[in-house]
Amino acid sequence: MGPVLLALALVAPPDSAPYADAATRALVDRARARHAAADTAIADYRARATYRFTYGVASRRQDAGDALTVEQQEAVVRWRRPNDLRIDIVGKRVVSRIPNLPRSSLLTEPWFVPVRAGDSLRIFTLGFPERAALHPLAADGPDWYRYALVDSVRIVTPAGERLLLAVDVLPAREGDALVTGRLWLEAGSAEVVRLMVRFVGRAFYAAPEAARGRSDAEAGLVNALLNRTLTLEADLEYGLEEGRLWVPYRQVIRGRVSAAPLVSVTVPFEVETRFREHALNTGESWAFSVEPPDSAAEASARGAALDSLRRVPVDWAGRRRFAGRWAGGRWEIARVARDSLWRYQQWEAPLTLADGDTRAADEARALLAGLAARLPGGLGGTSDVKPPVPVAPSFRFTRVQGFTPGVTLQRELGPAFWLAEAEGRAGLNDGRLLGAARLVRDAPASRIALDVRHDLAVLDPYAREDTFGASLRAMLNGRDEHEWHLATGVAAGWEGRAGRALGLELRSRVERHRTVANGVQRGLASLLGIGGGFAPNAPAADGWFWGAAASLRAHTGHASWRLTGDVLAGTGRVAARLHGSGRWDLTAAGLRGVKAQAFAGLTVGDSLPQALFRAGGLGTVRGFGYGVQRGPALWVVRADWAIGRRFAWQPYLFANAGRAARARDLLSGPVLVGAGGGIRFFGGLARLELALPLTGSGGLRFDEVLGGGS
Fold first, then answer.
1. Mean per-residue pLDDT, 468-491
2. What's the number of CA atoms in the CB half-sphere (13 Å) around residue 172?
């Protein structure tokens, strides 16, 4: 930090002051003066900008998850004083794990900060959110924030070493639109070279507006909902040019949507813009092509542009243009004609789902989440600081207990990222009370969970998860695709990342397993005379068991795979399993809409009933009942062909085959082969499916499926 700053740090002001110490005050005062001064060093610049939009799904709130879709757009950016901006979008490309998923964005407003961030901070430059957050270096920043000098680092540049100083910023009191985060300042000039913030506040997203007919109460409801489900962050990073000028280098808008515990899936998203090939103070002359609408008509014109491309002006070259005014100047966005946009080939590297620096993103999210967790009262208001719904109802239907209502509770604990969870269920058919308690540290880079449970459990790795959709199918159709046993004991687990696109999970448990029999015989369909009743629930080996498992999973481009090794030991018996699965999108091989899957598993040692593999059912070979074949070894192959590129609904055909048996009999004996087709809705969130067994006996099977997966 340097001897002068260390000496100043010894002179600490009172706790009520906005600065942690004298060194912090000296640095922040210089940074505020630099922020307020007009920047005359850069008169104009030209650069190439690459916009990258990624969104995906994650099973936990803090995880970056696995990307579903990545979109890139390439642009030429021109800026000049006082604040004129022109963006020419010249290329676009997309890669997606779901080919027919809507995924192409239309950029109609500036989405980055062209030079410096002003006193007002927004996620996107113009309209969202409705309230701009106060910049920590604004003139009245010390009235709202507390500052602390916490770190320093030396970086090597072509112009020599530079010392960067880190200042943590936290709100001092509640406000409508504030931030918490970290500023990295150059020691010599007090210039901001990186600004990492999370947006917080009680009324950040929506403001009461008479023009929109929105009352204070309505705006309050919108803000309360979004504060509980949406987390938004910004990371503005600058690079040094000509040895003295800090210019935009990388800007990231990052967020997550989560409604846990009502919904166990989080949707993370990220918008990253990288700037390169800067040319500064060129004196280049350029002009705007269209006049922006006047201020009164600007909002309606922008809405018309978003509503339909056919309403957007098109010039003689086939470019679509958007224009507007902002503080100090004008902006304009132009894009080439659609066919030229998609034919662009001057990309720096191939586009894949696995791109991106996951470790750096995890570190940034961990820092901001840790700062937000320190905020008292209503200052944080985000989904990972306070659980969005502390109490939530749950529902399960199984052949063991029938209808089983329950409740789930969550409570945040003092340390950052720690949560206590509890759930309880009561089987209306058998009167059995079940439940679990869990202590979870759900941090951005990893998740730790400690469990105590007395609940139904399944060890089949290819059974469909215990979800609401599975319970609904069991209740309606009388098909429970799980072999349940009662597990009582404790467990511990860790999950994180072993690389850029490689996930790692470790689990261990000590439990008592007991056999449970059917508590109900029929589902609603069979009670109405449609179909048969539930098959008997298979027995388990009773006794105390120790279990451990390790899993690796990865998504690389158009493929994904998972490999797991687990062991179950108890009652003088040991079963060790190795099993894995792979999924491939064959579009790149010329088979548009075709996806292939393969599952395999092998057991060494004893054949414990609850650890057997099962073939048959929605998770393995469709067209057959769940678990019509059981054995210590398994293979399954599946292929699906989606017809057309629709999203709201899409027909598809499939074929699958597999066998479960002893290892020596795996390649001989009867093989299950099935085929069929159906309609999937909204990318696979729901399906209606008909399946026919092509070997053995059995008739046409109809299934309705809720939830992703094929």
1. 88
2. 17
